[in-house]
């Protein structure tokens, strides 16, 4: 009987040990034993998929991968120590000297650093394109040596939406790998592979953990590509710790109910705040006023757990807003059970010039709220009182 993927994300489990435990135990072991020389030889020759060493594979890690594969509709996957090692692994395993990477410029800050500062050391060229580029502009940006397209949608922190179906079609027509960081949406909100992506990356640190405890990353997608990524990672060592995998796998059992609440709280706040007199504009993918509302409706099942708004008072108001908050946390994470506020212009993106910030959609008074699981009226009250002070 084919089960719903939500059921599978709850029920997929490492084979029960002779102890007959109900919950998956932690396999905190660096290596695995063999009964004889022949079974060890066969494992090393890839004739069996027995575990050998936890840098290669581990039951807790595999359980997490299997769940993410089901949720994303992917053939295979590999889990890494952080979201960034997933991003880096996907680049280094699949790009080589002379290749070109075409990336959207509204991407996670460290990903931007990897592309601009490090890829060229290995002879990999790149170019950036705006999150609001049209299909014609994307097509024109593809070069004969373009090997991979890399995007995030919704973008961070500006919440622009990129048309994944259009990018999937373009990538397929040109024989290019479409690599999508799906961290912001989670597989409960959007499944890029079903829209044409070849690879999907997650920082499991965010919504997947959902409680701000551990770092982790996952790459899932086409079997032939994952094989290359596995070979690269198995030798270079960004493996996910079994402890973190255990935490993350448990978290996936509640991802659907958590995302439902994150999203319903987020749209409640978006509606309640959009006409606030201190706010110039508010963006949420499922508000009809969002510039790419139509695409969001097509490719997302709901609007996600992040809202952002621009304060009329600009940079100084942004700082005042953070200082006036009483409950919301000021912290660099997102996707937590506790609501978090951030002001990119004075923190994560302070090193950029104002022109550089504007190019990636970061206006001076932009506030990003990662909407938590607290009662919606408590979150709203805190934001409203802080707005009145800036
Ligand atoms: C946090 C984040 C990453 C990096 O993940 P880490 O787990 O912090 O290494 C990559 N992409 C996006 C969109 C993120 O939010």
From TrEMBL:
<feature type="modified residue" description="N6-(pyridoxal phosphate)lysine">
    <location>
        <position position="206"/>
    </location>
</feature>
<protein>
    <recommendedName>
        <fullName>O-succinylhomoserine sulfhydrylase</fullName>
        <ecNumber>2.5.1.-</ecNumber>
    </recommendedName>
</protein>
<dbReference type="Pfam" id="PF01053">
    <property type="entry name" value="Cys_Met_Meta_PP"/>
</dbReference>
<comment type="subunit">
    <text>Homotetramer.</text>
</comment>
<dbReference type="GO" id="GO:0071266">
    <property type="term" value="P:'de novo' L-methionine biosynthetic process"/>
</dbReference>
<comment type="pathway">
    <text>Amino-acid biosynthesis; L-methionine biosynthesis via de novo pathway; L-homocysteine from O-succinyl-L-homoserine: step 1/1.</text>
</comment>
<comment type="similarity">
    <text>Belongs to the trans-sulfuration enzymes family. MetZ subfamily.</text>
</comment>
<dbReference type="GO" id="GO:0071268">
    <property type="term" value="P:homocysteine biosynthetic process"/>
</dbReference>
<dbReference type="GO" id="GO:0030170">
    <property type="term" value="F:pyridoxal phosphate binding"/>
</dbReference>
<keyword id="KW-0808">Transferase</keyword>
<dbReference type="InterPro" id="IPR015424">
    <property type="entry name" value="PyrdxlP-dep_Trfase"/>
</dbReference>
<dbReference type="GO" id="GO:0016765">
    <property type="term" value="F:transferase activity, transferring alkyl or aryl (other than methyl) groups"/>
</dbReference>
<dbReference type="InterPro" id="IPR054542">
    <property type="entry name" value="Cys_met_metab_PP"/>
</dbReference>
<dbReference type="InterPro" id="IPR000277">
    <property type="entry name" value="Cys/Met-Metab_PyrdxlP-dep_enz"/>
</dbReference>
<dbReference type="InterPro" id="IPR015422">
    <property type="entry name" value="PyrdxlP-dep_Trfase_small"/>
</dbReference>
<dbReference type="InterPro" id="IPR015421">
    <property type="entry name" value="PyrdxlP-dep_Trfase_major"/>
</dbReference>
<comment type="function">
    <text>Catalyzes the formation of L-homocysteine from O-succinyl-L-homoserine (OSHS) and hydrogen sulfide.</text>
</comment>
<keyword id="KW-0663">Pyridoxal phosphate</keyword>
<keyword id="KW-0028">Amino-acid biosynthesis</keyword>
<dbReference type="GO" id="GO:0016846">
    <property type="term" value="F:carbon-sulfur lyase activity"/>
</dbReference>
<dbReference type="GO" id="GO:0019346">
    <property type="term" value="P:transsulfuration"/>
</dbReference>
<keyword id="KW-0486">Methionine biosynthesis</keyword>
<dbReference type="InterPro" id="IPR006234">
    <property type="entry name" value="O-succ-hSer_sulfhydrylase"/>
</dbReference>
<dbReference type="GO" id="GO:0005737">
    <property type="term" value="C:cytoplasm"/>
</dbReference>
